Amino acid sequence: MISRRHFFRLFGGLGALGVTTTAYGFSEPALQLRVVSYNLAPPQWPTDLKLKIAVITDLHACDPWMSLDRIQGIVERTNALKADVIVMLGDYVAGHRKVTRFIPASEWAPVLAGLKAPLGVHAILGNHDWWDDKEVQREGKGHTFARRALEASGIPVYDNDAKRLTKDGRPFWLAGLGDQLAYFPARRFRPVRRVGVDDLGATLAKVTDDAPVILLAHEPDIAKRVPERVSLQLSGHTHGGQVRLLGWSPVAPSGQRLAYGHIRMKHDIVVSGGLGCSIMPFRIGVPPEIVLVTLGGQAPAVA
């Protein structure tokens, strides 16, 4: 079976043979930012509690594909949605080498600090945020550059942690899972017993009442283990396959079912196609997107 990396390299090479294909593939990330909206009513979520969540994921900051100016534009577009809360699902650092400059966390994090929402901006990390920090990979511990930069910019980063928020006097929980592939590259430096730093049980144990729960998980793979207690899982990582044809992704790192969009299991799941690129700088059939999820907002039925 062809790997994700080999597929994108092959696809990129074939695209380079045709000017039209190449122009479309490389211009789509820069020109076709869209907002994708989901109006959901998970059975675990109160029907009369309306919550608007803006989701940003997989920026992969680098020049020229995801410049500081473009990130600023994403910040402004997100703020214009007037969401109650903004969540960022990881992979802020570049995910490929076809760049003119790798943008350091000390530059992109302050731009993201311009995000504003009444209930705050909340972040988790993605696999590339861990993989990019060679010292953390060698030592097997520590906070990554990405985490330190986000926190220095006033954005809390959740690592198997949960926070209780309130909207219109009604509580809910925001739970952030540690990355499931954090130490995958560390196998080159030392024996690794477990590649992930995720602990779903410990994360949900921090939920101390029966208020509804929203889970932030960079990779959607955890979905099969998420209990019915969770109302909504928000994930990225897949880029919608980065190449998506007629609703099908030739390469789906989390499987076809979890490649993109709204999925219903024991809980509701939304997998964003994200904003940037990994391995190769093109997206075909899955334009970069900001996701806006609206939960509830309906009056309860009268018995």
Would you kindly provide a written description of the structure presented here, covering whatever features stand out?
By secondary structure, the protein is of the alpha/beta class. The chain has a single domain (4-295), classed as 4-Layer Sandwich (Purple Acid Phosphatase, chain A, domain 2), CATH 3.60.21.10. It contains eight helices and 13 strands. It has helices at 4-15, 19-31, 68-79, 105-112, 127-131, 134-139, 145-152, 200-205, and strands at residues 34-40, 51-56, 62-63, 85-88, 101-102, 121-123, 161-167, 170-176, 213-216, 230-235, 261-264, 268-271, 289-295. Strands 7-8-9-10-12-11 form a six-stranded mixed beta sheet. A five-stranded mixed beta sheet has the order 1-13-2-4-6, covered by helices on one side. A two-stranded antiparallel sheet has the order 3-5. Strand 8 (170-176), helix 8 (200-205) and strand 9 (213-216) form a beta-alpha-beta unit. The N and C termini lie far apart (55 Å). Mean pLDDT is 89; it is low at 1-30 and 299-303.
